[in-house]
Design goal:
By secondary structure, the protein is α+β, with helices and mostly antiparallel strands. Helix content is 22%, strand content 41%. The protein folds into two domains: 2-118, Alpha-Beta Plaits (2-Layer Sandwich); 126-173, SH3 type barrels, CATH 2.30.30.30. The longest helix has 16 residues, at 98-113. Keywords: Transcription, Transcription antitermination, Transcription regulation, Transcription termination.
């Protein structure tokens, strides 16, 4: 039993995984092909001032499959629409080393537990405060803190430039 890499057309990874899992069930190959992995992590993206969970592929265009090495399993996988090939030499797919497998699995595991926000803001960008005590004020982003999901914005209060720190969901780009 080893781990092999399936190269797919980018964007077809999920469909290839579904088809492969369906064929495994139909042909009762659960003991030959143990699992199909789509390496991904869960992230939070800010859309319309709200955090939306999203799945990000760690390796676009690739799946990892744990299976027995046999000509039949290689042919089955190669016959699935969207699969270009199994990685390896021209005639023989090569399994991942144990070290490579552990690295990928730890990346997947850490991605499942750690959600990060992609910042929709850049330094110097004009934003409008849409909630909280500064609702309705506009200002300029001075600093972005993606790990805390906050921005420092300079707004004008009573004619004076005042820096305030706000959550991503409290502001929106103008």
């Amino acid at each position: 039993m080893g781990f092999y890499i399936i190269h797919t057309y980018t964007g077809k990874e999920r469909k290839v995984k579904e088809i492969l899992e369906k064929r495994i069930a139909e042909l009762s190959l659960g003991n030959v092909i143990r699992r199909v992995i789509l390496p991904s992590e869960k992230i939070l993206k800010v859309k319309k001032s709200e955090f939306v969970p999203e799945e990000k592929k760690l390796y676009p265009g690739y799946l990892i499959v744990e299976m027995d090495e046999s000509e039949e399993t290689f042919k089955l996988i190669s016959s699935i629409p969207g699969v270009t090939h199994l990685l390896g030499t021209r005639n023989k797919p090569l399994p991942l080393t144990e070290e490579e497998v552990n690295e990928v699995l730890s990346q997947i595991e850490s991605g499942q537990t750690k959600a990060t926000a992609k910042t929709p803001f850049t330094k110097g960008e004009m934003v409008k405060v849409i909630s909280g005590p500064f609702n309705g004020f506009s200002g300029t982003v001075e600093e972005v803190f993606p790990e805390r999901r906050r921005v420092r914005v300079t707004i004008t209060i009573f004619g004076r430039q005042t820096p305030v720190e706000l959550d991503f969901i409290e502001v929106q780009p103008i």
